[in-house]
Write a structure and sequence with these properties.
This protein is α/β, with parallel strands linked by helices. The chain has 12 helices and 13 strands. The longest helix is centred in the last third of the chain and has 17 residues. The radius of gyration is 27 Å and the shape is elongated. The N and C termini lie far apart (79 Å). The model has no long low-confidence stretch (mean pLDDT 82).
């Protein structure tokens, strides 16, 4: 009988990667024992509960791999499971009553414009409001609010938000030149977001609006995790344009917020119609009402809709949000109505 090589068994366990994990059992320190008895190999494995759904895959793969080792006739695997530790995230917004994240499944739906004007409208209602532009790759709030100077710091290493139009503001755009790209990888982005939440002296705010970058990835997850308590007091707003293809991506954002257990306080249909500057009427360029119907079908509240207004573009380029520069326009009134509904819904 050929004697089984313990080193060969170890090499198999060290080389084979767990499906979906791209790491080996040895790297995970999951191998708790290797016993040999004649042609029989007995392996004791201890893994996190997170891998339990792959038990049968692991069992089948190891029986095949180890069975190919010279001298092995039988492979027995014993699994034990330990609870997956939950990450301890500290809420980094202790002085903020409620935070509202504003997201979309894709870019180009006017999400940042909605965030800026909704924040200004909430401030006009007498609330103490902050606005965080967390789109670190494509920050736009510096231009939309006409801010050219960076924020000041404190001797303790904290950051004082810039105040304008009754808001407290923070954006990566305040810290970098207009033509300088942010070439950072995930860990650096996550650290910057944590600083924007925990190291900015937001003070006592009724509501902090957080303009998320498009998509449903790691940056969004990190932000929600580090302010979960405050965000759960507020919630999430999803912005979409009316056409069906746009709402397909908005559905992903809705699904994301449900996955991370963030309450959705409203869906907004942006660019719902075009306001002609001459007759104040116009066509529904992207359709109309599709977001309202879809929100009802998905069981999420509809917060409101806003038309396309040429003054929005002009105001954004000139650094004055529409709600501030043209408070009596139909679009501004729409934002005021949405802010009022949000204030009531959150009990502020």
């Amino acid at each position: 009988m050929t004697k089984i090589s313990r080193a060969a068994i170890f090499d198999v366990l060290n080389a084979w990667e767990i499906p979906g994990a791209k790491t080996s059992l040895v790297a995970l320190k999951a191998v708790k024992g290797i016993d040999l008895d004649g042609d029989r190999v007995m392996i004791a494995l201890q893994l996190l509960e997170a891998y339990r759904d792959r038990e049968e895959l692991i069992r089948l793969a190891l029986r095949e791999k180890l069975g190919a080792v010279e001298g092995v006739g039988e492979v027995d695997l014993e699994f034990t499971w330990e609870r997956t530790p939950e990450a301890d995230f500290k809420d980094l917004l202790p002085t903020v009553k409620a935070a509202v994240v504003i997201g979309s499944g894709k870019g180009g739906v006017g999400k940042s414009t909605v965030a800026a004007n909704l924040a200004c409208a909430a401030a006009k209602l007498g609330l103490k409001v902050g606005l965080l532009d967390s789109d670190l790759y494509g920050p736009s709030m510096a231009m939309m609010f006409g801010i050219k100077d960076g924020p000041e710091g404190t001797p303790e290493g904290k950051i004082l938000p810039i105040e304008k139009f009754g808001l407290k503001l923070m954006s990566m755009g305040f810290l970098i030149d207009d033509d300088r790209p942010v070439v950072w990888r995930g860990p650096m982005l996550n650290k910057a977001l944590q600083q924007f939440l925990g190291d900015v002296l937001w003070g006592d705010l009724d509501i902090l609006f957080i303009d998320l970058p498009p998509g449903t990835g790691d940056v969004q997850i990190t932000l929600v995790q580090n302010a979960k308590g405050t965000i759960n007091t507020g919630g999430a707003i999803v912005v979409s344009t009316p056409q069906d293809v746009a709402f397909l991506d908005a559905k992903k954002a809705i699904g994301f917020f449900k996955t991370v257990e963030t309450p959705i306080v409203g869906v907004i249909e942006n660019m719902s119609s075009f306001l002609c500057p001459h007759c104040q009427g116009g066509p529904h360029i992207f359709g109309h009402g599709g977001v309202t119907a879809a929100a009802q079908q998905m069981g999420v509240p509809f917060l409101g809709e806003g038309p396309i207004d040429l003054e929005i573009r002009a105001g954004s380029d000139q650094g004055t949000p529409l709600v501030v520069g043209h408070p009596d326009s139909p679009q501004s009134r729409a934002f005021m109505e949405m802010a009022s509904a949000l204030k009531t819904r959150l009990g502020l």
